[in-house]
Amino acid sequence: MFSLIGLVLAAAAPFVMEIAGSDWRFVMISITVYLAIVGLAAAGLRNHPHGRFGAANVITVFRAALTAIVAASLIEAGQLRYEGDTAFSWAVAGLVVLALLLDGVDGYAARRNGTQSSFGERFDMEVDALLILLLSLLAFVSGKAGAFVILLGAMRYAYLAIHALLPRLPSDLSPSLVRKAVCVIQVSALCLIVTPLVNPPTSSVIALGALILLGASFGRDLVVQFSGYPSRKGIKR
């Protein structure tokens, strides 16, 4: 399955490359990032409890391929400026929207088929985190927002670093609709920023608003964890 979706990526990347007016580097970066993602996923398959890979994980692999193309778009991020190529901007935004729509589908597929697993949850979460980081980098490199926008994508990794430095810090959190809403707002804001619809200073204001909400969400979770607040149904960021 990894190979099949990889072939689809190899066929799709040149098409986006043509829209961007880029060169062979676009395709090579897409393939390299995809191989890195699936390589890490394959290494974690030992924690997959089911006999089959499952439709949900296949969808996540496809989302990883879309994320790889977004990664390659960084080399043409200058075209996302307000005076840049709107066709490329909409192409990138379209890839992101498709990835976000599929993000809801893979969870539904896992529940419907009874194939939920910690592997699938972590795989899905890390693809999401990488996509958000790449979008924040696109927003910065394209000039749509200042360097602070990178914090939108880096905060998840800073959170993991804190837990790595403090291994005894609880990592479980009670389910929260507020946390989910903030995540949706964060990704939606970044997706809007890379479209031709908004430009500085509006795009910077949107990014700053999303960052304040995300910072408050992560800060609240850290306060709960540092206080050792017990949770009956724990989930991990």
DSSP summary, beta strand count? 0
Q: Pairing-aware structural class of the strands and helices?
A: mainly alpha
Helix content: over 70%
State the assembly state of the protein chains.
Answer: single chain
Describe the structure.
This protein has about 240 residues and is mostly helical. Helix content is about 70%, strand content about 0%. The chain has eight helices and no strands. It starts with a helix and ends in an 11-residue tail after the last helix. The model is unreliable at about 230-235 (pLDDT under 50).
Short précis:
Helix content is 70%, strand content 0%.
Task: Please tag this protein with its features.
237 residues; 70% helix; globular; 0% strand; mainly alpha
Topology readout:
Elements: H1 2-20, H2 24-43, H3 55-72, H4 86-113, H5 118-141, H6 150-165, H7 177-193, H8 202-226
Helix pairs in contact: 1-2, 1-3, 2-3, 3-4, 3-5, 4-5, 5-6, 5-7, 6-8, 7-8
